[in-house]
């Protein structure tokens, strides 16, 4: 099985490209294969986004967070930033949790990526507003 094929085909269905209809449900299934079978980080991020926004599936923030956590564990620091921001916002029914938000934002403020550091630090500076 070629997980790149599943990922690419998922993008075609997600965007309605290459003569294929736009179908988020099929895209979701195609992204699942490389995420589950091969631990593919971009696929995990896609799944987090699909569950977060209800694309091809009902919104499920717990499932979204699980996929973002797996991506973070495999080295995607932006996934940790997303988790921190979502807990700070209480996004799509996810219960606001300042303690979890602070944990994730502090962790990502130590990132090797200056853009992630800048965003996380901005959220930490303004934490009294959330």
Q: Summarize this, please?
A:
This protein is an all-alpha fold and 130 residues long.
Would you mind describing this structure in some detail?
The chain has helices at residues 3-15, 24-38, 41-53, 61-73, 77-89, 98-108, 114-125. It is mostly helical and 130 residues long. Helix 1 (3-15) packs antiparallel against helix 2 (24-38) and helix 3 packs antiparallel against helix 4 (61-73). It is elongated.
Taking all Cα atoms into account, the compactness measure Rg is 16 Å
Q: Determine the strand fraction and express it as a percent band.
A: under 5%
The end-to-end span amounts to 45 Å
Low-confidence stretches: none
State the secondary-structure class: mainly alpha
How many DSSP helices? Answer: 7
Question: What is the residue-mean pLDDT, rounded to a whole number?
Answer: 95
Q: What is the makeup of the main sheet?
A: none
Beta strand count:
0
Q: Based on Cα principal axes, name the global outline.
A: elongated
Helix content: 55-70%
SSE ordering: HHHHHHH
List the helices and strands and how they pair.
Elements: H1 3-15, H2 24-38, H3 41-53, H4 61-73, H5 77-89, H6 98-108, H7 114-125
Task: Please name the defining characteristics of this protein.
130 residues, mainly alpha, 0% strand, elongated
């Amino acid at each position: 099985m070629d997980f790149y094929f599943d990922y690419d085909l998922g993008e075609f269905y997600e965007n309605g490209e290459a003569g294929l209809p736009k179908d988020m449900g099929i895209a979701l299934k195609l992204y699942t294969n490389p995420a589950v079978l091969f631990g593919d980080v971009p696929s995990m991020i896609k799944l987090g986004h699909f569950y977060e926004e209800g694309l091809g599936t009902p919104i499920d923030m717990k499932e979204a967070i699980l996929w973002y956590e797996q991506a973070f564990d495999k080295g995607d620091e932006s996934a940790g930033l997303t988790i921190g921001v979502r807990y700070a916002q209480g996004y799509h029914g996810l219960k606001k949790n300042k303690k979890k938000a602070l944990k994730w934002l502090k962790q990502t403020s130590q990132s090797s990526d200056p853009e992630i550091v800048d965003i996380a630090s901005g959220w930490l500076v303004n934490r009294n507003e959330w």
